[in-house]
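Exercise 7b. Backbone tokens:
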């Protein structure tokens, strides 16, 4: 898809490592601005879920791409349905969280999901989109690009509180493992996009962050 087709959309791109607050802030900012919200991490998790169900090895690039291209995905406020199966809980579980790293490193999967993400925004005139490569690759001309950070301790604490079956040390180890892999892979690594506003969310209230970001969007549109 030609990037020119995306000009004129009101896209807010939010990137950052795991537990930096992307989902909470993305959802709240979308509702504050009257835009829809897209969690692209859930899309990569959905491909991992579909690959596990089909017993496809995450290192088998050809079959992985075919799985991503054929996947029927329903992403809604109430859950995630993959090929007709409710995957809402399972995509956040440890098996998918382990497998998603290899899936997200696959260029074929990324090409397919990038196209779906751009079509999603075209159909809506824009939206708040969060992930790892949104401002750098998917929507480089977004109205606002934000790179959220927070200390590793705070990110692990937030994530451990969300997934109460896992302990803090395990969650912290998993965050560090995924940060390293997401930042060093060849295909669309996690970077601070050119022109992004860096926002450290450590110890800052969600409402405050949302108001700060909404003011930036309103100042630019
Ligand atoms: O919620 P959390 O930050 O833990 O992860 P997520 O946003 O659900 O994303 C899960 C994984 O998908 C990440 O660790 C990345 O490997 C991958 N991902 C990506 O590569 N590109 C995106 N735009 C979004 C997620």
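Sequence design result:
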């Amino acid at each position: 898809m030609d990037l020119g087709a995306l000009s004129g959309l009101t896209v807010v791109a939010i990137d950052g490592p795991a537990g930096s607050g992307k989902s909470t802030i993305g959802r709240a900012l979308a509702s504050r601005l009257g835009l829809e919200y897209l969690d692209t991490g859930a899309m990569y998790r959905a491909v991992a879920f579909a690959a596990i169900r089909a017993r496809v090895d995450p290192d088998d690039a050809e079959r992985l791409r075919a799985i991503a291209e054929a996947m029927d995905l329903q992403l809604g406020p109430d859950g995630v349905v993959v090929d007709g199966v409710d995957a809402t809980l399972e995509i956040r579980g440890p098996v998918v969280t382990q497998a998603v790293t290899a899936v997200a490193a696959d260029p074929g999967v990324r090409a397919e999901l990038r196209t779906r993400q751009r079509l999603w925004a075209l159909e809506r005139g824009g939206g708040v989109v969060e992930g790892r490569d949104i401002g750098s690759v998917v929507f480089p001309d977004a109205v606002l690009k934000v790179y959220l950070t927070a200390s590793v301790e705070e990110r692990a604490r937030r994530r451990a509180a969300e997934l109460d079956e896992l302990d803090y040390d395990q969650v912290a180890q998993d965050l560090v493992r995924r940060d390293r892999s997401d930042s060093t892979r060849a295909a669309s690594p996690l970077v601070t996009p050119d022109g992004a506003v860096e926002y450290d969310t450590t110890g800052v209230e969600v409402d405050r962050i949302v108001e700060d970001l909404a003011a930036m969007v309103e100042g630019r549109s």
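Instructor comment: Residues 18, 40-41, 44-45, 100-101, 104, 131-134, 178, 182 surround cytidine-5'-diphosphate (CB under 6 Å). The beta strands are 10-15, 37-39, 73-76, 79-82, 85-86, 126-131, 144-149, 197-200.
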